[in-house]
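sorry for the late reply, my laptop died twice this morning and i had to redo everyting from scratch. anyway the thing you sent over, i finally got around to it. pasting the sequence first so we're on the same page, its 317 residues, then the predicted structure underneath. double check i copied it right bc i was rushing
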Amino acid sequence: MIPTTIPHGRTARRLEWQYLPPAVRALIARRCGSPVVSAESQGAGFTPGFASVLTCADGSRHFVKAASVRAQRMFAESYREEARKLADLPAETPAPRLRWSLDDEDWVVLGIEHVTGRAPARPWRPAELDATLDALEECARVLTPAPGGAGAGTFEEEFAAFPAYWDALRAAPLGVPGLAEHADKAAALAAAYASVCGGRTLVHTDVRDDNVLLAPDGTALLCDWNWPVAGAAWIDSVLALIGPRGDGLDVEAVLSARPLTRDLPPEHVDVLLALVAGYFLHQSTQPVPHTSPYIRDAQRWQGDVVWNWLSERRAWS
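ok and here's the structure:
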């Protein structure tokens, strides 16, 4: 287990309901079909966009996300992409459905199905990890081949910049134990990503506890479909194990038991781990954005977890 002081579930610094322009609030209420009487901001994640569960006068509940095109352009574009991707997911996908969206020169707003549920507990519990992996396996079944209308790029294209992060890490290895000694080998693994990570499945690529919703029946739903790409069906199942590994679970036993990973060549897992280790460790050295005070801490923790995991698998002392 790698200790962390990151306040899981309370990492976001979000725009609140009362600070949305009156015209935007009125527009949302019209789309919800009833006046909004309360708003519960969602504290998980690392973006500053509006994301709240709204309760209306008629008792209905709605999950709404919004970002200003002018003041939060990067996040508005992210929400715009999420709306496109959600609209194209097949109905069987274990994910909340997009109900409506608004997109003009000022605001991007998403009305998403409200599902009663909660994020997985931290530290991760085996049963909740199993539910998450069950959902990912269902996604792999439903999303192969990748839906044609989703307009997703490929894993090879979208992650093409990642191997180069190792150039910076080799020049400044951050004091991470073993990094200086084994950076060349990790870089060589990462450079092979295109040969093992390609595929026909639409993969989420950002599976963390704050992007998973556990329903009352124990099943899991995948949220925040901002960056899906066409890639190998097993990618999400491996990435989902980063948090559990850091929390002390035996993820090697999980890999050997789950259908998407039990027959996977070990080298494939190592290539993916090397690819994302370089990204997390490099990104953790960047300035802390005032809109996301915990993102660099989270990236450094994930980088340390993945490097520790990869080093153990490769027998790097």
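The first helix runs from residue 22 to 32.
thats about all i looked at so far, will dig more tmrw
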